[in-house]
Design goal:
By secondary structure, the protein is α+β, with helices and mostly antiparallel strands. It has eight helices and 19 strands.
């Protein structure tokens, strides 16, 4: 029996953690939750399309506390961070953020994450959904390095949209107008401690306020809510439409441990010429030499607007109905006026312009492979 015919409810209990902003999400009309990193993550407020328009036109903010941080400290913290990722971090200075991949010894992706370097030997890793904390604690035990790996009291509140720079200017009285892209620094609002970073998973100009005292979560949310009114601010959840448009990937959905960075187009995050033996180095060399067997691509789908994210992977077929891949996410883009999605397909069908068939639960949809992204992520701050 299809779950789509059943009332979709999620039980709220003590086993799954609530974020510091949980009461605020209830107050401002959350319509649903999913579970992400063992925490409730809002899935909607006013609806995907309405939230999308707020995101691309004004300013939005929301509860992203389910991006549970992993803190790495100790005399060997920098050496440890170099060990766990194939990205070259030799130029990652204090106050810098870097998008990184965490690899296993076979070249599979454990997770993708944002790395923040706050001190010489103090790092935060902000991962997607998965057991990254346990993974890194396990590595630390046998690494021979003097490090401490914990989950700190840190909870991101994300602010995104073309007017987000103006909102940040108002909240901090211009103190962080000079904050560069993928940079971070410690700060506070009305004595609420946090780190502010020019990071975020939205596709639009974004900031994240990494709250460092969970007891003050709802107080911070109210401050942002009141300040955002001037800019037509809206509370939203992570927006599927804009992240697909921007080619922003979701771990566990668009890709997983069975995939290599080359498969999903993130080879720029690998430096095989480093003189350090990071985890997965030899495997990545072999994978790179062997060449790609499959590739992540953009897909444009014909037919009526798709207004619900697939509950399961949709098979991708060739003209003989042979399965050649799977589609993970798709939705109707209001700006493009077409259905768009993300799929991993056999390398022989990955060239832009290739015609494919997507097997939806209700019909076969004629589709075409296209380049990613449809819209680049916005990075420029406009304070005019």
């Amino acid at each position: 029996m299809s779950t789509s015919k059943l009332p979709l409810l999620i039980g709220i209990g003590s086993r799954i953690r609530k974020s510091p902003y949980f009461d605020s999400t209830l107050k401002y009309g959350v319509t649903g939750f999913t579970v992400y990193n063992k925490m409730y993550l809002p899935t909607g407020f006013s609806g995907p399309e309405k939230e999308y328009h707020s995101l691309v036109n004004d300013v939005t903010f929301g509860d992203f506390a389910a991006e549970r941080q992993v803190e790495i400290t100790g005399p060997d913290a920098y050496a440890f961070v170099r060990l766990i990722t194939p990205r070259n971090l030799s130029k990652c200075s204090i106050g810098f953020c870097k998008y990184i991949l965490l690899m296993d010894s076979d070249g599979g992706i454990i997770n993708d994450a944002c790395l923040l370097r706050l001190e010489d030997n103090k790092f935060w890793i902000s991962p997607g959904d998965g057991d990254v904390l346990l993974w890194l604690q396990g590595i630390a035990i046998n690494s021979g390095l003097d490090v401490t790996v914990i989950e700190p009291d840190v909870s991101p509140l994300q602010i995104s949209g073309p007017k987000s720079g103006k909102l940040i200017q108002k909240l901090f009285n211009g103190e962080h107008d000079d904050l560069g892209y993928y940079k971070a620094r410690e700060t506070s609002i009305e004595k609420i401690p946090m780190v502010i970073a020019r990071t975020g998973w939205s596709g639009e100009l974004s900031y994240e306020l990494y709250l460092q005292d969970r007891k003050l979560g709802n107080e911070l949310f109210e401050i942002v809510y009141e300040a955002a009114k001037e800019f037509n601010g809206a509370v939203i959840a992570p927006n599927t439409i804009r992240t697909i448009e921007g080619g922003l990937l979701s771990y566990g959905s668009d890709f997983g441990r069975e995939h290599s960075p080359y498969t999903i187009g993130l080879e720029r995050l690998i430096d095989l010429d480093q003189d350090i033996d990071f985890i997965g180095k030899e495997a990545l060399k072999r994978i790179n030499k062997a060449g790609l067997k499959e590739k992540l691509v953009g897909v444009e789908l014909e037919g009526e607007p798709i207004l619900k994210v697939p509950e399961n992977f949709w098979p991708v077929l060739d003209d003989k109905d042979t399965k050649i891949g799977r589609l993970s996410r798709c939705f109707f883009s209001p700006r493009l006026e077409k259905n768009i999605g993300l799929a991993i397909v056999d390398i022989h069908y990955s060239k832009p312009g290739t015609e494919i068939i997507v097997q939806a639960p209700y019909e076969k949809i004629s589709s075409i492979v296209v380049d990613l992204p449809w819209f680049e992520a916005e990075k420029e701050v406009n304070l005019d």
